[in-house]
Design goal:
By secondary structure, the protein is an alpha+beta fold. Helix content is 16%, strand content 25%. The chain folds into 2 domains: 105 residues, no CATH class; 209 residues, no CATH class. The strands form 4 sheets. Strands 6, 7, 8, 11, 13, 14, 17, 18 and 19 form a 9-stranded mixed beta sheet that branches. Strands 1-2-5-3-4 form a 5-stranded antiparallel beta sheet, sandwiched between helices. A 3-stranded antiparallel beta sheet has the order 12-16-15, with no helix packed on it.
Length: 365
């Protein structure tokens, strides 16, 4: 597996691009050269030069509502979050104390469903259509793990003798890396199709909700205070982009494993999930926030889908969690507008043993 992170790869690309493009004079109107994602997503572009506001203006003329813009310094990605307090963007302002030079390569993040329009600032409060931010680990999606394409909704489709398993290439296992946020190839090539996925076992779950977005996920931020409003949106965007340092991904407060009740509460919801190469570990505590998770490690990338149904998984172990039936969505669009999922909080790794979505347990906090 590659151990080079997506961020490092993007940094190398930006540095190489900067070396290939010679500076030119400022244009009267700021422009971006490259494929600007008008329906939301991330893109590498070249800026004609000018202020950060000029980036937003140029993006807006292309139909992109700018969420954030990123550049490189010393091989590290440094970002400016649109609409954030000045202290959040101090490092970016120090990198460009006056104007951004002409022909500077930048990584831009656009909000979902931007369309043409003048406002580059995303909403501080995600709308009803926002995707719930989750984490999936090797017990949900992995090389060799079972799935079923085009399942019969409402019925079990995955069985112990299931012949269909993910390949390494389908889940990006052949190029896993810290911070990798490329869509998994199996999902990106099947947008609109339905698939059944596993969800792990009680105590070894495969689906997790990030119910608290900590202040340390903001550039220049610190501590575990749970963010809200625009700051929470900005920090979730940074996690989605893979720009959070590994140090800030340990002991993340309020990472909640999903069992039958939590999974059924996702029915009808759109999900944006970062997929991990290995186990996501959770520690349980007696006081708030009650859980903390380790989100360090290599990723396969990102997936998006709408949860259609959740059914009991029979013929496996007695602690097997349900089969989750989903319709695959375009990750570039769905993951551009995020919200937290206020999932049920299990009191321990073994209780409640909530495995039947038809009769979910009430033994949560």
């Amino acid at each position: 597996m590659r151990t080079t992170s997506m961020v490092a790869g993007a940094a190398v690309f930006l540095i190489a691009l900067a070396a290939l493009v010679s500076p030119t004079a400022h244009a009267q109107q700021p422009t971006l050269t490259g494929d600007v994602p008008t329906n939301g997503g991330v893109a590498l572009v070249t800026y004609s030069g000018g202020s950060v506001q000029g980036v937003a203006t140029a993006a807006a003329t292309e139909g992109c509502s700018l969420v954030s813009v990123w550049s490189t310094s010393g091989g590290e990605m440094i970002g400016h979050i649109v609409g954030a307090p000045d202290f959040v963007n101090t490092e970016f302002a120090g990198l460009y104390p006056s104007d951004i030079p002409p022909a500077t390569p930048l990584l831009i993040v656009c909000a979902s469903g931007s369309g043409p329009g003048p406002s580059p600032t995303p909403s501080a409060t995600p709308g009803a259509g926002a995707a719930r931010l989750l984490v999936l680990d090797e017990d949900a999606i992995d090389n060799g793990l079972f799935y079923r394409l085009n399942p019969t909704l409402g019925s079990q489709n995955i069985f112990p003798d299931n012949p269909t398993q993910f390949s390494a290439a389908e889940v990006n296992d052949n190029r896993a890396a810290e911070g990798l946020r490329d869509p998994l190839s199996f999902f990106s090539s099947r947008v609109g199709q339905e698939v059944s996925l596993l969800s792990g076992q009680t105590g070894d779950e495969g689906w997790f909700a990030i119910s608290c977005v900590p202040a340390r996920w903001l550039p220049g931020g610190s501590g575990d205070e749970c963010l809200s409003g625009a700051e929470r949106t900005q920090a979730m965007d940074a996690f989605r982009a893979g720009s959070i340092s590994q140090d800030n991904l340990d002991e993340v407060p309020d990472v909640r494993p999903l069992r039958a009740r939590g999974l059924t509460e996702l029915e009808g919801q759109t999900v944006c999930a970062v997929v991990y190469d290995s186990d996501v570990s959770v520690n349980y505590e007696d006081s708030s926030p009650f859980t903390e998770g380790n989100l360090q490690g290599e990723n396969y990338g990102i997936v998006a889908f709408t949860v259609l149904d959740v059914v009991r998984l029979a013929q496996f172990s007695s602690s097997s969690l349900p089969e989750v039936q989903v319709r695959i969505a375009d990750a570039g669009q769905a993951c551009a507008n995020l919200a937290v999922f206020d999932a049920p909080i299990p009191p321990s790794s073994s209780e409640p043993e909530d495995i039947d979505p038809a009769s979910p347990s009430s033994g949560y906090r």
